[in-house]
Amino acid sequence: MDERPLKGPGHAISLIAPFAARSQAVIAFIRRELWKDVVLLYHTEDEFVDLTEVISASHFRPPFRCHLVKLEKDVRPALKHIKNTYVNPRFVVHVKLAQIQPLLAAAVEFGLCGTLTHYVMINWDTTLLYPANDPLTEPCNITTFSLFDQDTLAEKFRRITVLDALWKDSLSVLNASLSAVAGRPFCDSPWPEGSSITAKMFRVNATGITGRIAVDSNGQRANFTIHVYKKKGRRLQKYAEWSSNTGSISTPNALVVNHTLRLNQRETLENKTLRVSVYLVSFLHLVKSNFLSSERK
Predict the structure, then answer these.
(1) Quick one: average pLDDT of 22-34?
(2) Range of the domain at 165
(3) Receptor ligand binding region domain spans which residues (predicted)?
């Protein structure tokens, strides 16, 4: 899935949101939560390059500090270093989907899944893992992103990957563009309707699995929404939305009641098991008094 921006006007459109948009959503989330220190985890050099926008943004107001940690095949040495270096770290994780669960499992071993530790997963398909349903990683606080709102999809699309959803939306746009012209092409002569098809694709204004579909003059996707999910209880639920128009995160009206506080304010007690001890001070004092009275007699 190529998330690089198109170079300029031409005959192609791209329905994938550029990686820069996801980076901006991550940055908006970090600032919304008032995080001051963030540990960036990655495996490959390409993943490191993807994170440079987050690193660059950390120098602007309000600033935050980025700590880069490269993960090897065995992630435990890196996690041990983090455990010994940072207090209650907040992570931004940019790794392949298959590497997320093993990473979280190892994090549990080192006590890095707790009330004040948080993982922001950049991978589009993290919602498909249902990491909160794994008893081992249940204590982990997780936030992630998606191009579509899973709760509004038809049942048959609930487990679809972002790449598959984009393919379906792309074919839908192409089909609509082709059906708008008359005639058919011939191999021995130019087809004048070709430019009409291109123009129709650039004027697309539809709704697909990945939400509203529109592109700018360069063919790059525009006016789209990135849905923000966080773990609530034992499942990932929609928490907020990031808009490509405003570049900011907002909470839809339907979710305001349950999400009026920032995550760092709600992480302390929400969905946590509390052990309560009750001390019967007055009762013990009464017993002691009766015992002393008996002794005097």
Answers:
(1) 95
(2) 156-220
(3) 21-232
